[in-house]
Amino acid sequence: MRKVLLATTALVAMSVTAAQADISIGGSASFEINDTASAQAYTTDGSIVFTSKNTTDSGLTLTAAHDMKFEGSATANDSYIDIAGSFGSLRLGNTDDSLDRMDGALPHNWDIEGSLALQANVGGDQTEENISFISPNISGVTLYGSTTANGDTNGMGISYSNGPVALVYQAGRVDGTNTTRADETMVGASFSAGAFKVGAGHNTADVIGGGKTKTNEVGATYTMGEITLVGLQSKSGASKYNSVGISYSIAPGFSFSAESAELNTGTAATSDSETYMGLHVSF
After folding, report:
1. Each residue's pLDDT tens digit, 34-45
2. Across residues 249-272, what is the average pLDDT?
3. Which residue in 143, 130, 158 sits closest to 87, CA to CA?
4. Phi-psi bin for 110: left (phi > 0), alpha (psi -120 to 50), beta?
């Protein structure tokens, strides 16, 4: 457990001052593999504990504590253990796998909201319990791979970056039912020149015992000072998606974004449109 003395206005919410408050952050984390005769499962477990202590002039010790679960669930964005060194990075837990973390050349990653976007990456946004490895960057080249329990969803990839150019290739198997399990490959590239950035990606999903689906995406961004404009188009089978968006940095840690998007699947029941606006504060 390590102690951090905080001198921020956040302490006002607890009615203590920086001189009085001693904030401790501690806890435990585990990545577990449970292998039985019928199945294998990955899980994360543990907790992170935030504790604030304050001693009054009369000698009373006041404690406020918050114990937050360290488990992969809908209540946590990520929970993982990461071991990094000269060998690269090994990450275990409920978080984006290495294929998802290394596909930044694909334009759908630049989309502001993107909830309707047709994505060309292998396996979509993978957030299941997984084991992932990313090698060191050697002369612009990075190798990586990941797997979920039983190898249900797994893949490997290679990325290359050199100045304004970024290239990526990935291949893997994405688990599903007997009619949706697929072998996928993806290739993507992006190029930056001053205020402009353009990119494209292509995915082929070969459903085992079924047919092939091809997904293509192209996109561009343009930055003018504090304003960034984003445009994206993608197509998968008969479905088409397009969006335009803008983000504006009002002040450090304070920004606004908006986007208009449309998904056309060829049928009214599954087609959709979206108008998005967001005000963002970061710290």
Report:
1. 888 888 888 888
2. 92
3. 143
4. alpha
CB 44 within 8 Å of CB 78:
no
Which residue is associated with the tokens 């190898």? 151
CA 15 to chain centre: 35
Comparison of pLDDT for 209 and 215, the residue scoring more: 215
DSSP state at residue 97? -
The structure tokens 């001198």 sit at: 7
The dihedrals phi and psi of 99, each to the nearest 5 degrees, come to -65, -40
Strands 227-236 and 239-251: antiparallel
C-alpha span between 105 and 87 (Å, rounded): 24
Are both 82 and 72 inside the same structural domain? no
Question: Do 198 and 132 belong to one domain?
Answer: yes
162 & 231 share domain? yes
What is the maximum alpha-carbon separation in the chain?
76
- The pLDDT of residue 11 is 39
Dist. CA 26–CA 2, nearest whole Å: 7
Check which CATH number belongs to the domain holding 130 and give it: 2.40.160.10
Note the residue count of the chain: 283
Give residue-wise pLDDT tens across range 165-193.
Answer: 999 999 999 886 666 788 999 999 999 99
Residue 59: CB atoms within 10 Å: 6
pTM: 0.80
